[in-house]
Amino acid sequence: MAFTNSSSASSPLEKTSLASLDQKLVMAKRYAHEGVKAGARAAVVAGIAAAIPTVASARMLPWARAHLNHAAQALIISTVAGAAYFIVADKTILATARKNSFKQA
């Protein structure tokens, strides 16, 4: 016996499950986009918040002036910004998905 795709694709159960999967995919993309926007905002704020004391200390403190070159300062700032991005994006995606899953239930 050969199974054909046309008979299984025409069943009402499969049509609703495909529609449900499409809806879930659209929702997941929206959650991810919201997370990216929130993460980018957090990265900008954290980068500025880390840059000011890093650059100031590298100019004023003798130890920092001797040991923190431009590459080290950039590494400190970018690490803080990257960490803020991933933490906030992840929390935003999970919080949005959790909030909307309770709405659907």
UniProtKB/TrEMBL annotation:
The keyword Oxidoreductase does not apply. The chain crosses the membrane at residues 38-58, 70-89. Keywords: Membrane, Transmembrane, Transmembrane helix. InterPro entries: Enod93. The keyword Transport does not apply. Pfam families: ENOD93. This is Early nodulin-93-like. It comes from Trapa incisa.
